[in-house]
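Fig. S4 source data, part A: sequence.
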Amino acid sequence: MDRKHQLEQWLATVVAKPFTLTTASADASFRRYFRVHVGNETLIAMDAPPPQEDCRPFVKVAGLLLAAGVNVPQVIAQELEQGFLLLSDLGNDTYLSQLTPENAKSLYGDACQALIKMQLATQAENCLPPYDAALLMRELQLFPEWYVGKHLGRTLNVAEQAVIDKTFSLLIDNVLQQPQVTVHRDYHSRNLMVTAEHNPGVLDFQDAVIGAITYDLVSLFKDAYIQWDEADLMDWVVRYWQAAKQAGLPVNADFGQFYKDFEWMGVQRHIKVLGIFARLYHRDGKDGYLKDMPLVMQYLQSACERYVELRPFLRLLRELEKVA
C-alpha cells in the first residue's frame, strides 16, 4: 500500500466528513504536504515517512511556539508511528509570492515581531537541542564535501584545506559567543505565510535549536530566494535590533558589533547552504536549487570582503569559481 493511500485511510478515521486531497507542497526533505478539502474548509495533512522523518519534534516545537504567541499550525490529530499529522491550514500565500517593494517594510516588520516573540520564549531547561560547535561544524563540512568535491569536482590541497579549517574555526568561535536563543533555522520567505490575522504564519520549524541570536535574522534578510538593496536590508536589521533591545533581548548594545555578528553568522549559513543545495542536486536529484546558488555565493563573498580575517577564504572562493 502506498503512503498516500495509508494517509487517506488514517484521515478517514479522524475527519468525520467526506474529504478530498490535493498536493499542497513538498520540501527539501522527505516530507510531503496535502491539502484536505472538507466542505468549504481546508486542513493540511503532513506525510513524514519513518524512518527518514520524525514528527515528534514538529509537535513539540509547535506547542512551544503556540505558547509564545507565534502563529504556527495547530496539531489537530497525530499518528506518530506512521508519520502522519493533521494540521490547521495557514493558506497559500508565502512571503516569497507576496513581497513587493511597497509592502516589504510592513511584512518584514511583522516577521521581526514574531521572531522576537519566539526568541523571548526561550526556555533554559534544555527543551531544544543546542546549536553547538559539533552541529555548526557538521553543517560547514557540507561545503568541502558536496560543493567543492561533488559539485566542482575539486580536491583541496593542503594550503586550501588550512584556509578552510582556520575560517571554520573563526566562524564557530564567533557564533558560540553570541547570545543564545530559540532559533527556527529556516526563517525565510518560503516558510512565512501572509495571514489576515497574526501575520505571519510560520512553517517548517521542526529543526529548531538554541543558538545564535542573529541566525534567523540572516535567514530572513539574506534569503536565498529573494534579494533586496543593501540599504533596505541594513534599515530592517536596525529596526529589528532596536525592537529587540526594547523587548529586553540580549542583543549587543553596539550596533556595529551586532551587525558584524549578523554578517559572520551569514557566512556560516551560506557556506552550509551551498553544501546543502549541491547535495540536494547530486544526491537527491533535485535541481531546483541550482538557480539559487549564485545569490548565496554573492552574499558569501560580499560579507567575506568586508572582514580582513575572512579574506583568505574569499580568495579561495574566487579560485574555486575559476574552475566552476
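Fig. S4 source data, part B ends here. The radius of gyration is 20 Å.
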